[in-house]
């Protein structure tokens, strides 16, 4: 039985086409459609219900030590109010989840994890805290205490500024005790669209009021509500990896092209041993620009002269690039930009050209 | 949902329009385009390709998914609509003008629904 976010009644009464996703019922699109929603975020602004995301609180005198050991990035030099992307790996160095760590205060952190991985992540972290005997770090899954709303797009700062004088100035920072339209919320300058924007964490009971205030404030700027469809095309166009596609428990961060979130110079973290010697992987996340007519989606075999060189991990038509693009895990030997490959799309071979990530560079 | 009175329909949401000389036009219904969302690519057969009733002859790609289009007849393709290949979004904006193929052949008995029957199917 899927759960409903606090904003579900709003989606239902405003033409949201509801689908099950990661145990939640969420709108895939509204009446304007995926392309219009996508373009609104690229050119103006869009509003997303991302309440399905998981939030964990990790606190205590050993909280930092716990993060250092359980996650791949380095948090020792992080100031209060900063947000940092990280991976969580298993002992083999493969990815359990990707997440962001928010430093709320000394010894107090919030982790934002993928909805589909929430229970798996919580179990993993709790087990590991016991195994590494970090009694001084408490863990709580606080996901149900928050609704989360993402305001994304070039006009997002202006829209939010009209409702709040507590907005973070810099990318990947947050204000814990923020207020938007008089509603208490955490305001972070983060997002998953490739545009400037904010993510607001509020009490579930405040979610509809906050959403409606933002919609009202953005009405004249072209702000529209956006669903999961646009979220996926936006993140793909911005070449952002997605768990379950570009990352999973068989893929290392190096293969996923996420080495910058792995600090091999740390004394210890779970997965370090497994990753040692794998810094130069045999396959790597690569961009593909589809040349022929068609769209390569996930799990399409990729070959060169009949020899398999990997598979696509996700792909779609990118509305702003006006081209079909894909990401793929390909043999490192073929991954340099400019190689022509064959992609098997449901039995039909179409040509594609390898390209650098992010796609916005091409 | 728009269900024109001058067309016949399939259970898999194609529309069929009879032209002169035993030729039919086949397209996607308003319901189908609405369910698919923004259509960005269409793969169509070529003139001369063989069609088999109930099997896929083309596919359309929306931003989110790919869907098969099924032939209502046994026969051959006479013409693919270049306009739709160049402007797949025309299926969204005018589903009953954006025919996919013109074809000739035999439609199995009971293979098509009247507008009233199709409306009943949509519920």
From TrEMBL, chain A:
InterPro entries associated with the record: GcvT (IPR006223), GcvT/YgfZ/DmdA (IPR028896), GcvT/YgfZ_C (IPR029043), GcvT_bac (IPR022903), GcvT_C (IPR013977), GCVT_N (IPR006222), TrmE/GcvT-like (IPR027266)
Keyword Methyltransferase: yes
Family classification: Belongs to the GcvT family.
GO biological process: glycine decarboxylation via glycine cleavage system; methylation
Ranges of residues in domain Aminomethyltransferase C-terminal: 286-359
Full protein name: Aminomethyltransferase
Natural source organism: Leadbettera azotonutricia (strain ATCC BAA-888 / DSM 13862 / ZAS-9) (Treponema azotonutricium)
EC identifiers of the protein: 2.1.2.10
Catalytic activity: N(6)-[(R)-S(8)-aminomethyldihydrolipoyl]-L-lysyl-[protein] + (6S)-5,6,7,8-tetrahydrofolate = N(6)-[(R)-dihydrolipoyl]-L-lysyl-[protein] + (6R)-5,10-methylene-5,6,7,8-tetrahydrofolate + NH4(+)
An example Gene Ontology molecular-function term: aminomethyltransferase activity
A GO CC term assigned to this protein in UniProt: glycine cleavage complex
Gene: gcvT
Quaternary structure, from the entry: The glycine cleavage system is composed of four proteins: P, T, L and H.
Binding residues for substrate: 199
Keywords: Aminotransferase, Methyltransferase, Transferase
PANTHER family named in the record: AMINOMETHYLTRANSFERASE, AMINOMETHYLTRANSFERASE, MITOCHONDRIAL
Limits of the GCVT N-terminal domain: 7-266
Function statement: The glycine cleavage system catalyzes the degradation of glycine.
From TrEMBL, chain B:
Assigned keywords, A-Z: Lipoyl
Keyword Protein transport: no
Domain named Lipoyl-binding: residues: 23-104
Cofactor remark from the record: Binds 1 lipoyl cofactor covalently.
Membrane-spanning ranges: none
GO biological process: glycine decarboxylation via glycine cleavage system; protein lipoylation
Transferase keyword on record: no
Alphabetical list of InterPro entries matching this protein: 2-oxoA_DH_lipoyl-BS, Biotin_lipoyl, GCV_H, GCV_H/Fam206, GCV_H_sub, Single_hybrid_motif
N6-lipoyllysine modification, residue list: 64
Complex formation: The glycine cleavage system is composed of four proteins: P, T, L and H.
Functional summary from the UniProt entry: The glycine cleavage system catalyzes the degradation of glycine. The H protein shuttles the methylamine group of glycine from the P protein to the T protein.
UniProt family annotation: Belongs to the GcvH family.
Protein name as catalogued: Glycine cleavage system H protein
Source species of the chain: Leadbettera azotonutricia (strain ATCC BAA-888 / DSM 13862 / ZAS-9) (Treponema azotonutricium)
